[in-house]
Amino acid sequence: MKNFVRLAVAITLPFLLAMAAHAAPVAEVASPDGAVRVEIAINDEGRASYAASYRGEAVIAPSRLGFLFVDAPKLERNLTLTSRSVRSFDENWQQPWGEQRQVRNHYNEMRFTLTERTGPGRSFDVVFRVYDDGLGFRYEFPDTRRFHDVRILNELTEFNFARAGEAIWTPALGSNREEYLYHRTPLEQIGTAQTPLTARLDNGVHLSIHEAALVDYSGMNLMRIEGRGLRATLTPGPGDAAVTRTAPFHTPWRTIQISPSAGGLVESRLILNLNEPNALGDVSWFRPGKYVGIWWQMHLGTASWASGPKHGATTENALRYIDFAGRHGFRGVLIEGWNIGWDGDWFGNGEEFSFTTPYPDFDLERIAAHARARGVQLIGHHETSANAAHYEDQMEAAFTLSERLGVHIIKTGYVSDAGQARVHAPDGSVRYAWHEGQDMARHHLRVVQAAASHRIAINPHEPIKDTGLRRTWPNWVAREGARGMEYNAWGNPSNPPEHEVNLVFTRLLAGPMDFTPGIFGMDTPSPQGVATTWAKQLALYVAIYSPIQMAADLLENYEANPGPFQFIRDVPTDWEETRVLNGEIGDFVTIVRRDRNSRDWYLGAITDENARVLTAPLSFLQRGVRYRAQIYRDGPGADYRGGARSRIVIEERVVTAGDTLTLALAPGGGQAIRFHPLR
After folding, report:
1. Helix (H) or strand (E) segment spanning residue 23
2. Do the Cβ atoms of 91 and 104 come closer than 8 Å?
3. In terms of Cα–Cα distance, which of 20, 531, 662 is closest to 9?
4. Which end of the chain is more exposed for a tag (fewer CB within 10 A), N or C?
5. Which residues pair with 476 in a beta bridge?
6. Residue pair 308/298 in contact by the 8 Å Cβ criterion
7. How crowded is residue 14: how many other Cβ atoms within 10 Å of its Cβ?
């Protein structure tokens, strides 16, 4: 115990020396391997702070802890340490589906109680869990006469970078929710940012700040206060409090993933580990897989969600998609625009949506029977226009219908401007709320729990952020939560070539994303089209993780190009293990994953607007086994601009674990490889 937690008698972290006259260190905790260390200090004003180092070098400078309340004095000054306890924990657990089957949850924990020396005399706990790949901490409020009905205005939690560096981030609290392009700036130029926010310090250490287990609380954003300092800022509530809770309760975990390389952040399972274990038990009724759908044509403008001559969700069209899915081994078919409510101003209120009544030209019973007969599952679609109150009123009937029809996955939608979600107030009225506020955190969990009782998995778009709750509720299988493929149809602007690389090191650190890759038809209504190559579109099935992956393009584009389409047919969506071979934030990445249900490995390499030559050592393959490498690479002259986007070379070679491949990526390009063991 003494080797990882001790009462400090001297300042042990170099970056705290300057603070010695003002702050007294009181406790320290280190990760199991000793690489990550956290020190707690209290200064002469009674302000508590934490600081962190990695491999002996400071990464987080002293950062304050505390709260602002609506109807009580702030909780920040005149604090003293009144108790402390420590423990170590080590377990291995298995994901029922995921990017890695076996996960180790190994940490050292320190819990300490802070009590006001004067004034109200309030006490609260702070719990730190320190892992080899980072740390998480949360506040816990006891149920006392001083803490019962708690109304939080904001947190005073800080994250002060100890060194210079640059960050990849998107703005928070904008009207477009989480769907913004990434900024790449020095730490001193961060504005108000969403999480995950990822940084590379000038000593090469990589950090990502996020949160885990967001339950009955407002989502956390980050606001720069001065220099390289950030402060938590909670998504506002509909009233004067961001969070209203009754004690006892705890906040979500505030997380900092730490790695010497960008790839180490991707391989980290810290966010998952800070969530509670599976609450559902057996979820074998959900099976990962790929799907096609009536979706892309709406974004191209050749079909409509609304009824009329361009209506996409017709019986005839649905049967055609089901037959295609059955022929090519796709598990599901998504059909948007099937239910009444899409005519008129659906974006504005969503009150006309029925989640049980199809349009007259959509024979729901016949279509569901046709899908079952061909071993294809319908994927439901419930667009709510962020009218969560209206959806909850129909949710039970909608899930009952879906369960009867054999629909085990539903894509929900919350299209509206941020801050315009509608939720039930305690008095039964309907009020407006932010997409990532406490009311919507409660709503999304209600949806997931209700769906689970009907053996239905949920994939929300325009969602609340992912914080690893898929561990506790493994029917929460994917979500959007960033700019997806549809922006390449709309433009203004399209997603730039570095966007998907940025996603790997930011949004995807939080959890699976339903990005909808696989576009071969590069010319869209957007002036820029799709800033990618065909080989990159294939590589995205490996680089961007989701247990449900869409083949998003029009069926005729797949039928006309069976060569590259073969990779989409072959690539799985459920993995035994995942490794990152190389990568730099915003520039490039190479990821390999092993299929959970075979001995095959898959590689996906993607780049930004720059052509690159990367090396891929194949030491991840089983030694002594020869593999057929089925390679899909950028062809000569391939480029994300103009007609060269479709230039692709498909070839095979035999490789072993001792080989190293050279991956030549075109500007905006990529490479996808399937490694299949030879007998």
Report:
1. strand 23-30
2. yes
3. 20
4. C
5. 458
6. no
7. 12
Output the pTM of the full model. 0.95
Residue found by looking up tokens 């939690």 in the block: 157
Side-chain-side CA neighbours of residue 182 (13 Å): 30
Q: 257 with 219: CB under 8 angstroms? A: no
**Looking up tokens 């399937």, which residue turns up?**
674
Q: Give the amino acid at 111.
A: R
Residues ≥6 apart with Cβ < 8 Å to 642: none
**Paired residues of 536 in beta bridges:** none
Collect all residues with Cβ–Cβ distance below 8 Å to 313 and sequence separation of at least 6.
Answer: 294, 305, 335, 336, 337, 338, 359, 362
Phi, psi angles (nearest 5°) of residue 571: -65, 130
Beta-carbon neighbour count of residue 24 at 10 Å? Answer: 15
The one-letter amino acid code at 351 reads: E
- Angstrom distance (rounded) from CA 485 to CA 549: 12
In this structure, are residues 254 and 232 in contact, taking their beta carbons and an 8 Å threshold?
yes
Question: What DSSP designation does 326 have?
Answer: H
DSSP state of 33: T
Task: Please give the Cα distance from 394 to 132 (Å, whole number).
Answer: 45
Within 10 Å of residue 527's Cβ, how many Cβ atoms? 9
Block residue for tokens 């922006």: 487
Chain center to CA of 31:
25
3-state secondary structure of 383: strand
User: Do 462 and 479 touch, CB atoms closer than 8 A?
Assistant: no
Instruction: Give the bridge partners for 88, in sequence order.
Output: 108
Q: Cα 282–283–286 angle (5° rounding)?
A: 155
Q: Which of 436, 486, 498, 500 is catalytic?
A: 486
- Using CA atoms, how far apart are residues 288 and 574, in angstroms rounded to an integer? 6
Taking the C-alpha atoms of residue 590 and residue 673, their distance in angstroms, rounded to an integer, is 11
351 is catalytic: no
- The owner of tokens 């391997």 is 33
Using CA atoms, how far residue 170 sits from 183, 484, 538, in Å, is: 6, 14, 26
Sign of CA dihedral 432, 436, 439, 441: positive
- What are the 10-residue block averages of pLDDT along the chain, 679 residues in total? 32 39 82 98 97 98 98 96 97 98 98 94 96 98 88 98 98 96 98 98 98 98 97 96 97 98 98 98 97 98 97 98 98 98 89 97 98 98 98 98 98 97 94 98 98 98 98 98 97 94 98 98 90 98 98 98 98 98 97 98 98 98 98 98 95 98 98 97
Q: Provide the sign of the torsion angle of the four alpha carbons 617, 621, 622, 626, taken in this order.
A: negative
CA distances from 211 to 67, 304, 512 (A): 17, 38, 15
CA 621 to chain CA centroid, nearest Å = 28
C-alpha distances in Å from residue 396, one per residue of 233, 391, 454: 35, 9, 9
- Count of alpha carbons within 13 Å of 245, Cβ hemisphere only? 22
Going by C-beta distance under 8 Å and a sequence separation of 6 or more, which residues neighbour residue 56?
none
Token pair for residue 474?
């493994």
Is the distance from CB of 343 to CB of 357 less than 8 angstroms?
A: no
Backbone angles phi, psi at 382, to 5 degrees: -125, 95
- Reply yes or no: is the peptide bond before residue 186 cis, omega within 30 of 0: no
21 CB-near residues (< 8 Å, 6+ apart):
none
CA 43 from chain centre, in angstroms, equals 37
